[in-house]
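To whoever is covering the structure queue this week,

Two jobs came back overnight. Logging them here so there's a record in the thread.

Job A:
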Amino acid sequence: MSSLSRELVFLILQFLDEEKFKETVHKLEQESGFFFNMKYFEDEVHNGNWDEVEKYLSGFTKVDDNRYSMKIFFEIRKQKYLEALDKHDRPKAVEILVKDLKVFSTFNEELFKEITQLLTLENFRENEQLSKYGDTKSARSIMLVELKKLIEANPLFRDKLQFPTLRNSRLRTLINQSLNWQHQLCKNPRPNPDIKTLFVDHSCGPPNGARAPSPVNNPLLGGIPKAGGFPPLGAHGPFQPTASPVPTPLAGWMSSPSSVPHPAVSAGAIALGGPSISAALKHPRTPPTALDYPSADSEHVSKRTRPMGISDEVSLGVNMLPMSFPGQAHGHSPAFKAPDDLPKTVARTLTQGSSPMSMDFHPIKQTLLLVGTNVGDIGLWEVGSRERLVQKTFKVWDISKCSMPLQAALVKEPVVSVNRVIWSPDGSLFGVAYSRHIVQLYSYHGGEDMRQHLEIDAHVGGVNDISFSTPNKQLCVITCGDDKTIKVWDAATGVKRHTFEGHEAPVYSVCPHYKENIQFIFSTALDGKIKAWLYDNMGSRVDYDAPGRWCTTMAYSADGTRLFSCGTSKDGESYIVEWNESEGAVKRTYQGFHKRSLGVVQFDTTKNRYLAAGDDFSIKFWDMDNVQLLTAIDGDGGLQASPRIRFNKEGSLLAVSGNENVIKVMANSDGLRLLHTFENVSSESSKPAISSLAAAAAAAAATSAGHTDRSTNVVSIQGMNGDSRNMVDVKPVITEEPNDKSKIWKLTEVSEPSQCRSLRLPENLRVAKISRLIFTNSGNAILALASNAIHLLWKWQRNDRNATGKATASLPPQQWQPASGILMTNDAAENNPEEAVPCFALSKNDSYVMSASGGKISLFNMMTFKTMATFMPPPPAATFLAFHPQDNNIIAIGMDDSTIQIYNVRVDEVKSKLKGHSKRITGLAFSNVLNVLVSSGADAQLCVWNTDGWEKQRSKVLPLPQGRPNTAPSDTRVQFHQDQTYFLVVHETQLAIYETTKLDCMKQWPVRESSAPITHATFSCDSQLVYASFMDATICVFSSANLRLRCRVNPSAYLPASLSNSNVHPLVIAAHPQEPNMFAVGLSDGGVHIFEPVESEGKWGVAPPSENGSASGASAAAPSVGASASDQPQR
């Protein structure tokens, strides 16, 4: 059922309730399953109407849907059973036991036996657990408290417990508005229209015919508020125009800014200088959609929250609400023609080098394309000549002016992505919003002349969007970010002009606009809220919910008369809608999206006529006036699952992101001619004019910089692997062995792609970074958890080339999703996403994965991707999960408050809470031989817990290298050796092997202070090797017996040259469960690579010779990790 049909059901429910059709109301609630009336449910429980209680519940859930539903039905049937026993009606009790309670015996046979034994007691209160059972009334009240908690926690009741906030008689209002529109379209409209029925369209009779009463007072429709409720039809008719000005399309969205000290109490509308009433009445048969008259529903208080309503102009299938009228052109100069003017021919294919995240064509030089990528690169292309004019990698221009949180974030996680690039209206400036705090503005002077203009430390966390606007005729930059704010900056000086606060979630996008002389900003947040702001620091003027309630962007048509939004929900459902601004309601919803979009859908508008969106590996087009899909184009294949798209100003070119870091430029016939014109023309021949403001700003910047490039004084974050970097060398350097053994044994270096088998897994869904990674226990799939809380699953298929169907680097797998298209998405943290600690654990049979990303813990079915349950809402948040090796129903959950909770899934109960750490838990590992749990934390402490009584047996603080402050938190991870007696300890400063019973360190491999930190490490499946990844993108293979290096995989072996200096590096590493020489890494750019040695070798290097008399590997100096090119052996 469509969203509009669903909303119609709510309107009918309201109508039935107002008309006192009580039984029908509850019947419709149950049959539709849209609204669970808790008050009605409580009344039926109090009255003991058990059959009606279960019948009503059946419209929303069944007994076996989930554990919450099972417990709800069990509690109801148990109460019914106890009441029969209390009345000594044993035949009835036996009937309930057999018919209603027997179903639960398959889930808990012992409990069913205990319930059955109550029949043998004279008074069931003799049972100890029921000794406090009172009378029937009190027992029902106590049960209701429990039932309400279960219903509120049950995901099947989500969004069904709150009835939408509607104006009284909303359905009547819509019908009355429809009748008025019909009357306005009459050939001979009469002052007192003759409206006798709703079954056919209204039409006025001959002038001398009988006249019926006005629909305002028609008894059929009931009383409707008159004030501002209907469009005026004539100077002397019953629908008299009011003296107030007619509001234009923002009327319902924003309250008047004039002389009202508190916008929250203003019910008026902004008059944006729209056409006067008299002008609108000159053509009564052509209602202009650019001007919406006030309705009874538009007189809302500016900051009142209400759900999306149904627009007056949306067809509901009963010919009540007309959609279009003769002459309704919306600025389309010619009538709609076949989509020959759509850019659908692939005219250019550009290779950017890293994945495009945002693109924008120059507003004047329309073949000039600006690109920002997932590793912070900026590219400027002359599409006509296929020439890349400029390529810049990310660097902070002046690190000394950056806030301490930013400096700390860049050191901890130096990889930065571009979230948005955009040109200023005249093309003299462009802005770049990054995933870390920063906005950078460049001035553009034509050709390759791009100069640094402003760098702003704009937001705490990511800067999610950037745009330009001109309030008071002064160019400003608007930004929004993870810190839930929108900020306005002077584009010439970088001075902050406004800060808008009011969102309760990270702000995802901004859309500045103006109507006549009124400037305003729409903003959307990750909780789906849409707000609007004037440049007056008076707070948000509206508060609405966007379809999908997650990632939403908004855009106007080119002529500024029509407003659209595109959004994707967490479940992958995507929406493009047009808004009726006067109502703040959805005017039309466009059809044609894939059932579940593989990523957040991006969209754009062009020519006041078309909408386009990237979805399902294609570009989909709609005519703005038709909700049906116009056409879809695949760009000759190779597009991303949800490609990013951008039109040039004339709509003749369309840039689309493809796989393998490619940008495809589509063109129509005009675009092809344009590209042909520029093919042999130098990019210098046409430089865009620079506005006087921007020129002055650029001159001022040049003067203040002493006419020198500021880049010479910049600390480069991007170049951490390069020889010319300004930061401290981050490569681990360890002295070569001093004895003669180095002449016999040689470290295996893998520096070329041909020296190993490496495969980057295909990416249908682009993510920022991989936070967790694991092979399935069967060995035929790999599961990743991305930083945006989405799980990615790749499966290898059994075929002629892969008879076993196991994972291999020789054949690419498929990124798998069930037929429903649903995504496994965790409940996201409400705080800064950068602060969330993702974690997951896989059940032994690969049937379930338990996962968290700073929010509630979710239990997913690995076959259907459905969420089976969610529990433990923060605070505290889960930071590590581990299944008990002998009972999948027992889970150890490490928390960010330093505790460990032992949780029983079956009974939904925390059995024990372990306290021993001082900072968040970062590692947990069970030994089923020693019956212990080993834990590690950000406090660098190791603890051993007995799993019988959960007492702490011993603990030890990990010795950190000298010169490193003990207060610096860092993840410490633990993993048991195959023998279940020794375990591996992984810290950014060291690898170590510990004996469990005494916590003695048996072997250690330290990282020197000036070297690249370890990001992750793991045993191979046979525990003979240790795979470790480093922040400089090196991967090292150690022999676990002595923790000595035997093979080093250099970044050049698996990363393309374009990423060699981009700080892309592995964050996590996982070993195959059956193949000792296979491992995979999850990268900071969202990629996953799987590795195997070349078939001729069959293993990673040769084991280094063991040292005689050495008790610890710590004293064994290993070959250099991350040596410079000159130190590496020649190949």
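Job B:
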Amino acid sequence: MSVNIPGLIVMLLFYLLVLGTGIWASRKSKRATEKRNENWRDVTLLGNRGITLAVGVFTTAATYVGGGFLVGISERVYTPNMGLVWSIVPVAAVMAFIVGGLFYAKKMRQRKYVTMMDPIQRQFGKAVSGVLSVALVLSDIFWVAVGLIGLGTTISVILDLSYSLCIWLSAAVAITYTLFGGLYSVAYTDVLQLVLTFVSLWLCVPFVLTSEHSLDITKTALNFTYQTPWIGSIDTDSVWKWLDEVLSLGLYFLGSQEFHQRTLSAFSPTTAKLSCFIAVPVILMLAVPPVLIGATGASTDWNQTSYGSPSPYERDQASYILPLVLQHLTPIYVSVIGIGAVGAAVMSSTDSVLLSAASIFSSNIYKNILRTSASEREMQWVVRITVVLVGLIASLLTLLSNSVMVFWIVGADITYVFTFPALTCALYCKFSNGYGSIMGVFIALLLRVLSGEPEFGLPAVLQYPGGTFKDGMYIQRAPISTICMLSNLFATIVFSYLASVLFNRGILPQSWDILGAKTHKTSQELASTDNCKTNDVDAEKIREAEAEHMMETSPLETSVTMAVNVPGLIVMLVFYMLVLATGIWASRKSKRDTKNSSADWTDITLLGNRGINLLVGACTTTATYVGGAFIVGNSEVVYNPNMGLAWNVMPLAATVAFTIGGVFYATKMRQRKYVTMMDPIQEQFGKGMSGVLSAALVLSDVFWVTTTLTGLGATMSIILDLSYSICVWIAAVVAITYTLLGGLYSVAYTDVVQLTLTFVSLWLCVPFVLTSEHSLDIITTATNFTYQNPWLGSVDTDRVWKWLDNSLLLSLSILGCQEFHQRTLSAMSPATARLSCFIAAPLMIVFAIPSVLIGATAASADWNQTTYGSPSPYERDQASHILPLVLQHLTPSYVSVIGIGAVGAAVMSSTDSALLSAASIFSSNIYKDILRTSASEREMQWVVRITVMLVGVIGSLFTLLSNSVMVFWIVGADITYVFTFPALTCALYCKFSNGYGSIMGVFIALVLRVLSGEPEFGLPAVLQYPGGTFKDGMYIQRAPISTICMLSNLFATIVFSYLASVLFNRGILPQRWDILAIKNRQTSQELASTDNCKTNHVEKIREAEAEHMMETSPLQTSAL
């Protein structure tokens, strides 16, 4: 049909009215800012905390009354399988406002928080607050999308306008007036929108109820007419599901910023409380019209209307019942009035969510984490840009109409399962802390994923009683969301108490308290003495306590503040755009190969369809090792007076590693067509041992992400004077994005770009560094004492073993990493895999030379004559920053900017490798082989994507714990060198090795490593090897600890494997004791070898294990 012109005019008039109100309110906002000289953020985000009771009631109610509220109630009442008893949104809203008024509104307003995340940050620290804040912003984007979809479907049905046009026009109006006046505009337009919604709906009701095509709704309420009674019923087996929906739809609201933004902006705590209570009857009055419309829809003979038959339910259009009733059962001018109701409701919730996302991002992410020194003008732009971006992204998501339910489920679960328990504990559980919150979130997330979700195609691993199977999928009827929420709440309390006892009673040393649980408790006691009269005082004291904790534990010092280096910032952004563009191009190649090839999606994503050629292979293999730590670390070691070039073993170690890898590992692994390096370990030692080592390897990858990003953050924050966190997060987001888009293709081809940029940038900087007027000739200072010891360095007799230990660890640990083997396994052929290693070996030396020269120049410089001044970086404990300091103070500014490209490219080339490595190990060797062996290809795609995101986010969050970087490096290196390298070597070259030997090897190596001590952990040395010294009362080992542990693992694996093999294969021990099935495993390997490894060995091992389990299971033979 043609466009409904009267309706279009009404809609435009409505939008103009709302926009005019928003502009008027924005002028009020500006006057308040100018006259009272108030903080711009308080005025914009909280309306200067001056919202009166009348306006407060309207804006509080309007926050809940959105498009989903009106359309959803009508849909539930109309749907034959549900009815009024399942239309629980009004009941949930009433519960939310009553509980919120009693327990949250007054308490939050009294303490003058800016956002709901402030008490969470205060109680749990920035890391936990940052994660939950990001999740909350994501949920807000989903809420905007859900609200706009409700508007688009309604108006497009009534006006016959384009669905997209309705959405984009509404989004543009909401974004515009929210930008103009912040909370003032949102609150005052809410008054107008709620009045329009109320009047429009009640004007429509008489026409709907008196339609000639409908029966009396009082008769159809309990009697079957055209469909089942619209009152509905709750089956016994659905009671728990009903209760789950009531609680989640009610309490999720208390975990959202939209609700708390209204109470925090109230004129007083009492006003905040009363606004919630008065909003209750308002909600009920607004719920009645959509209930009546839904009931009329259920009482209508649709065959007699212009809609015709079959009915909307039979056409799968139950979600459109409200606009369909208005269009086909009322005159045209009435349906036009109905537009105002839905449009006003949608915009009243859309603007609330836009401002909520801007509040959380600007206050709790940007200001508190990314850039703590941000000016007021900068914060204004952050708020504005966030509003625009959230609106645009959500509007784009509306195009994915098939994902509406997905958006709704994720948005609700974030607020109900995660942020609501966190806020409750932060307000009412004084001893709760970050450790408890992390465990709570982890347990809840794990339970939620394992409980499954049909909308995602996610199967239920945990199958609660009472569910049913539908289309081969288990449908839960248990209150899943509530179980997860309560588990989060319980775990937070229990683990918080446990951590509090361990640290506050001195059971664990304070140096291990990386989240500052004891410090947060101190800061809360300080803040409470002022009875929370001003938010500024509270925040200041918390910052002071946190700063004191950081000064005690962090080796980094605060740098001198200066203006942002704009040219450098532009270069960095251009570099990121280039890398991202390359990753997107590679992702398109990945998609083409997926369509044109019969290869498995996992092979294409994780291994590039095993089609990486020699050139790309050599570059990506080299880039795997050339990370931020490689470049920055080379310079640091050469510059350090106690070390020098003699201790810079990284280039030599990498060369040795690639040579050994090419000779002994690359060809053998590639010939057998393994997917990950854990496949031969699983084949040889079984799923149990493989699972343990796989989990450890994923953990080490998280730590590698942290260490590489820390190198980037330290370098760029010095050269650009940007926040350390901003540099880290931007790089992490870019790396995560292109890794998600194209898998190994994106990683490999961006590695080529990144390696080229690293090479060119470093060598362009070298001439300027060497010719600096403040530095002596490095040839002279190589062997002569000038400003410090000679930079060539030397290896003392008592440190030879330590030098050897470092060399072996840095070389052989690479061979225990999935990053290296992922390159060889993705090669076009075994020969290509081998040659890639051999070509990468000399390239490591080439890439190390510029860093060495920069470190040597730093050791030859008179720092007192530079802009850096004295004392020197080493005396200021800033030797780890020597590369960026040389570029900044010994070269022109444009040269230091070029250096950014080198470090940025190197960091990202290692970060993306670690992200994909973790995803490969977790998806293939943990999820697919252990947790869910029947996982579909689509399910595996989501597992890979989620793993990449989680590893990236967690690794980035760990960068905030700058005092723990060395801890992460040590743990990561020890996992690969001491544990996975010996296991892989035995799996490939020791045919009789088995799970018993591997278990003993890992156990002995772990005990030795712990007993040998580690100063970085404050772990004393129980085993004191000869040659060590005491320092500050702690024994410092000089023996090759890591190598001793690695060799012990290797030796024990071989010896105990041989012993177990003899005992079982010769019948000395009965076969039923062979719980690891080593005899069956050896048989399966012999079978697999006859096929020349053309097929994966893992399947045959599974068959042998299954047969063994059938023979020995105690469930079948009770005699055992």
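Note for Job B: Confidence is low (pLDDT under 50) at residues 525-562, 1090-1120.

Please reply-all if you pick these up so we don't duplicate work.
Q.
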